[in-house]
């Protein structure tokens, strides 16, 4: 009888653990690369049987039966026109390093997302229930307030390497003496001046964080809190919810970045967006690569940057330079490019992972986005990085520091600089050897990043928010972490002791005036 009861309990528990969960996935940033990452999350979670409500600026016509799309494509209206125009960047007409403008844009995008009519239907429907919310962290914490409405755990998904701004909500800020800011080009170990620079960046960033937290709090009180009250929920403060995060899933891995000290609630799943089985190349492209006797060079500036926006003289110069190479060149270009040499092939659409997986691919010329640098390590192909904005600079700097890349500046001398870099990498086997070594480290994991992603998502739901993984650092005030209270106590005791001793000496002197006179 006892055995039967145990079997029933096991079966009931198993059915509970295997039950599909309802997950709200917030990935509304208007950029194709962010959609690719969001779609990667969906791919693994739907395979595990979970239902996804996907808030995205890139609605697809065909979606998985377990996916419901919430269209917030109106977010593109917040992006300034020609923000990522390559010619404008080369002519220094666009400042992509303006932190205030960038943070203001993030605030506006989050506000637009929550106020979008399609999103409002979800938020205001009392029948909507979720077991978990996963939000893409993009320099703003406002989505962390959504559990006030849906009363469920929250996970941040970070597209970047671990850095102080995302770590502060689950543990404590990283040490600027050896961990760079997310937008910093410094690579540890730092020089003295670099350490001072990183400290300055972090202090100014913390000041900005205080300012924007006040804005986020107002938006939470205006948009989210009233809806939560309409459901008769207890409404926590935004400050409480901001630090009530179960996990951060990071698009990172030690093979691609730095071995940063991490809390239990940070899980590195870098590479999860890459297909576990490489899709076959189209027949014409496969034949082209198979027959490339001297190897293939693949050139792509990613999904957000357009090669067609390069100045005419640069496009013509690149075609001429590529034509002088003995390798076959595949150039992802958004339109027909007349006058291409025989060895240069223009691809309006490029199956990047399948190209990099081909054994004849010997070099990848890239803008240095994290997806592309992840894929180059996954498939073991050295790169030349031409960074343009955001984290691309630090991604390429890290790749150069790790020894499998060369960097070329986007300028009017890019053709000659690129020619020299191509020669350096293809004539020196150390670059390929190094990326193959890192590729082995990347793949040598106890489980695949997709499986780990699903495991931790389910773990958070099953354990009601995974409070056992929460860092105790969240319970300790900043002044306690650096022992300012102890310093205050020591100074108080020392001052009190000095005062008492001086007081005693004065009393002694007053009681024995004759002895003092005789000594004099």
Topology, please?
Elements: H1 2-18, E1 22-27, H2 32-47, E2 51-56, E3 67-71, H3 86-90, H4 99-115, H5 117-124, E4 132-137, H6 147-150, E5 154-158, H7 164-167, H8 192-230, H9 238-242, E6 247-250, E7 266-268, H10 283-290, E8 296-300, H11 312-323, E9 328-332, E10 344-347, H12 352-357, E11 361-366, H13 370-379, E12 383-385, H14 392-402, E13 405-407, H15 414-427, H16 430-443, H17 449-462, H18 478-481, H19 484-511, H20 513-519
Parallel strand pairs: 1-2, 1-4, 2-3, 4-5, 5-6, 6-7, 8-9, 8-11, 9-10, 11-12, 12-13
Helix pairs in contact: 4-8, 11-15, 13-16
Question: What is the number of helical segments per DSSP (H or I, 4+ residues)?
Answer: 20
Q: Outline the low-pLDDT stretches.
A: 1-18
Q: Structural class from helices and strands?
A: alpha/beta
Terminus-to-terminus distance: 102 Å
Strand residues, percent:
5-15%
The global form is globular
Helical fraction equals: 40-55%
């Amino acid at each position: 009888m006892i055995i039967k009861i145990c079997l029933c309990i096991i079966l009931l528990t198993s059915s509970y653990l295997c039950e599909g969960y309802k997950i709200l996935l917030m990935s509304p940033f208007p950029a194709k690369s962010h959609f690719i990452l969001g779609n990667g999350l969906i791919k693994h979670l739907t395979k595990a049987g979970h239902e996804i409500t996907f808030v995205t600026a890139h609605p697809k016509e065909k979606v998985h039966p377990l996916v419901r799309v919430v269209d917030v494509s109106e977010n593109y209206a917040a992006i300034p026109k020609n923000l990522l125009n390559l010619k404008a960047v080369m002519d220094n007409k666009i400042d992509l390093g303006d932190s205030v403008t960038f943070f203001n844009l993030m605030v506006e995008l989050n506000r637009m997302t929550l106020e979008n009519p399609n999103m409002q239907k979800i938020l205001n429907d009392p029948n909507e229930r979720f077991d978990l919310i996963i939000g893409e962290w993009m320099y703003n914490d406002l989505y962390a307030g959504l559990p006030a409405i849906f009363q469920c755990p929250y996970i941040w998904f970070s597209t970047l390497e671990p850095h102080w701004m995302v770590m502060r909500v689950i543990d404590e800020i990283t040490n600027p003496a050896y961990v760079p800011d997310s937008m910093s080009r410094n690579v540890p170990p730092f020089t003295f001046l670099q350490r001072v620079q990183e400290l300055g960046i972090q202090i100014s960033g913390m000041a900005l964080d205080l300012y924007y937290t006040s804005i986020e709090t107002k938006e939470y009180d205006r948009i989210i809190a009233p809806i939560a009250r309409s459901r008769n929920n207890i409404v926590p403060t935004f400050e409480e919810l901001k630090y009530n995060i179960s996990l951060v899933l990071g698009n990172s891995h030690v093979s691609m970045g730095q071995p940063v000290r991490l809390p239990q609630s940070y899980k590195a799943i870098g590479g999860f967006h890459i297909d576990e089985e490489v899709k076959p190349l189209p027949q014409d492209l496969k034949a082209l690569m198979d027959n490339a006797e001297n190897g293939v060079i693949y050139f792509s500036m990613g999904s957000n940057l357009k090669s067609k926006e390069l100045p005419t003289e640069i496009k013509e110069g690149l075609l001429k330079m590529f034509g002088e190479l003995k390798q076959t060149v595949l150039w992802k270009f958004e339109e027909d490019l007349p006058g291409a040499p025989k060895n240069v092939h223009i691809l309006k659409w490029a199956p990047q992972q399948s190209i990099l997986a081909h054994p004849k691919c010997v070099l990848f010329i890239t803008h240095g986005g994290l997806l592309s640098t992840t894929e180059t390590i996954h498939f073991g192909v050295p790169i030349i990085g031409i960074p343009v904005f955001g984290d691309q600079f630090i991604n390429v700097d890290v790749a150069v520091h790790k020894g499998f890349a060369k960097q070329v500046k986007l300028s009017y001398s890019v053709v000659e600089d690129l020619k020299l870099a191509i020669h350096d990498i293809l004539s020196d086997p150390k670059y390929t050897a190094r990326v193959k070594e890192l590729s082995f480290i990347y793949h040598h994991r106890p489980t695949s990043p997709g499986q780990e992603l699903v495991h931790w998502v389910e773990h958070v739901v099953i354990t009601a928010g995974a409070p056992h993984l929460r860092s105790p650092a969240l319970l300790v005030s900043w002044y306690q972490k650096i022992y300012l209270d102890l310093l205050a106590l020591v100074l108080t005791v020392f001052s009190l002791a000095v005062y008492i001793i001086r007081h005693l000496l004065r009393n002694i002197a007053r009681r024995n005036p004759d002895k003092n006179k005789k000594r004099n």
